[in-house]
Amino acid sequence: MFSKELQPLIFVAFILTSALSVSSSPAGIEKGRRKVVHVLEDDTGAVIVQTAPGKVVTHRGGSITLPCRFHHEPENVDPARIRIKWTKVTDTLQFEDVFVALGKQQRVFGSYRGRVFLEQAGPGDASVIIQNVTLEDYGRYECEVTNDMEDDTGFVNLDLEALLQLIVYAESSQGVVFPYYPREGRYKLNYYQAEDACKKQDAILASHSQLHKAWLEGLDWCNAGWLEDGSVQYPISHPRDECGRKDTPAGVRNYGYRHKEDERYDAFCFTSKLNGKVYFLKRFKKVNYAEAIKACIRDGSVAAKVGQLYAAWKFQLLDRCEAGWLEDGSIRYPIVNPRSRCGGSQPGVRNLGFPDKKFRLYGVYCFRENKDEAVGGTGKTKSTIASLTKRKSSNSIPVNATKAI
């Protein structure tokens, strides 16, 4: 514990979206330099932490630098006595250790092992590099620098963006939200089952802000689903009697926080850009589920997950008017350009439900991981940077046609 005589140091929060470089405006970009902001100036001689304002962007599977710098006043401090600690802070104010360093001694925790390193760009640099960024890395991070009895802390929000636009700002959508229910039917998942269901589909439970943004983009779904904070909500763009009365305004309907174990709903999942490619496997014959799984494996791939198909539809503009098996046993197909014989007038991922796995009536969607490697941070990591140079804008695609048909 710190002595009561020490004055508390201020906390500053910034929004970041995964790091290669930092800038506060397109016009303010200066190659090879980071802009920083003082958190505190203290006449008594304190550790002063600096973090970066603005947004910095990467993609899933890429590398990110969480920027944090410090200096000590006076500056004649022994580096071996400086302790750097990075912690992830959840919405419920729970703390997960990420990284700690004291002098030359370092320790990385949990799923961050082998992926988190000090940037070591010079004296006073407490920045860390996270390689192979995952959906689970999304969240709020705390950088704490301690020198004996004095400390300072800065907060960084890491928001996984969908696309990487090198050097300049990325104005792309952060990801795609999709509703999900299992083979057993609708309203069958408690909170923990919903969380697991999203993970199995290459996704995480969506946040309220992500669902709200999806609603602004046109998402309309009449079944309530769990969100990551334990609330149950659903987005309505076109009010109607069967979805809470026709005379009520459009919006995100909220059931509030529900009992996580006893109550059952669907799930709203969130996923981001893929580190790979989804494709429809061309075959002369239709296949049942078991044959579909084997066909993808023979082709050097695996059957695609629901989240992967949504990401391919949103970011790779996958458009295929052929129904196919997915890994969870559902039948779906992605439509970017609606036409009369492909399930309606709106873009979306069509869902035909969960048929008998013995039926030989469909094709299959496969997923092949991007095996390219690129140097990122302090070591090699899988990357989809090559595909980003050929990316297409997805901002024009509404997401109001995700309903089952």
Automatic annotation (TrEMBL):
Alphabetized UniProt keyword annotations: Disulfide bond, Extracellular matrix, Glycoprotein, Hyaluronic acid, Immunoglobulin domain, Repeat, Secreted, Signal
Primary localisation category: secreted
Any one GO cellular component localisation term in the record: synapse
GO terms for biological process, alphabetical: cell adhesion; central nervous system development; glial cell differentiation; positive regulation of neuroblast proliferation; skeletal system development
Domain of life: Eukaryota
Domain Ig-like: 46-159
Signal peptide: 1-24
Subcellular location: Secreted, Extracellular space, Extracellular matrix
S-S pairs: C222-C243, C321-C342
CDD domains recorded: Ig_LP_like, Link_domain_HAPLN_module_2
A molecular-function term among this protein's GO annotations: hyaluronic acid binding
Domain Link: 176-271, 276-368
Similarity section: Belongs to the HAPLN family.
Function (record text): Essential for the proper localization of brevican (BCAN), mainly as a perineuronal nets (PNNs)-type deposition in the brainstem and cerebellum thereby playing a key role in the formation and structural organization of PNNs. Contributes to the formation and transmission of inhibitory GABAergic synapses between Purkinje cells and deep cerebellar nuclei neurons.
Official protein name in the record: Hyaluronan and proteoglycan link protein 4
Species of the source: Astatotilapia calliptera (Eastern happy)
Lineage: Eukaryota, Metazoa, Chordata, Craniata, Vertebrata
Gene: HAPLN4
